[in-house]
Amino acid sequence: HIQAGQKIKRTTMELSEYYMPGLGGLEYAQQSAHETADALNHINPDYIRIRTLVVHPRSRLFEDYQAGTFTRSNDVAMVQELMWMIERLEGINSTLVSDHIINLLPEVEGKLPQDKEQMLEVMQWFLDLPPEEQMLFRIGRRTGVMNLREDLADEKRRRRTEKVIRDNGITLENVDQFTDKLIQRYI
User: In the chain, is it the N or the C terminus that has fewer CB atoms within a 10 Å radius of its CB?
Assistant: First the structure.
């Protein structure tokens, strides 16, 4: 993959590489992040596009999940995985793009290396939230009520999201299942 990417970079074609947080499951999240960053550092693609993993019920990966051979990540774990990957990006001038509705944090994008710290700051903001606030943002984002960090401080958006949480009986224990159903609408 690295050699193919390097060959494309020697042409006049633009190269986009995709990174899918969650694809390694919980067991291989850090390894996936590190090895992906290593490959991207060797390739220096024009674009790095983020596509959060969604395990569709009709996929083979879903069968693996049900069989217990694949452990799904959730939004929080995938933000951590993405952070590990971006932390290790060095010596490249790619543009990182979070341009799909399934990505939890659309603000994690920019030009490397100059916007790297800002991207890490957005992810750290989310990881530092108390679990209840993480849940509120996750549900707000997944229902289209929230999009950006600042939306969590917007009282009208908070109340709308809190109503969704109450009306659907969402708790810290079942938020992953609820958000899985919501994001499957987009694939």
Answer: N
Structure tokens at 16: 């986009």
The pLDDT tens digits along the chain (187 residues) read 888 988 888 898 999 999 999 999 999 999 999 999 999 999 999 999 999 998 888 888 889 988 988 998 999 999 999 999 999 999 999 999 998 989 999 999 999 999 999 999 999 999 999 999 999 999 999 999 999 999 999 999 999 999 999 999 999 999 999 998 888 887 7
Rounded to whole angstroms, the Cα distance separating 12 from 41 reads 19
3-state secondary structure of 111: strand
Q: For residue 145, what is the DSSP state? A: S
Tokens standing for residue 69: 């051979």
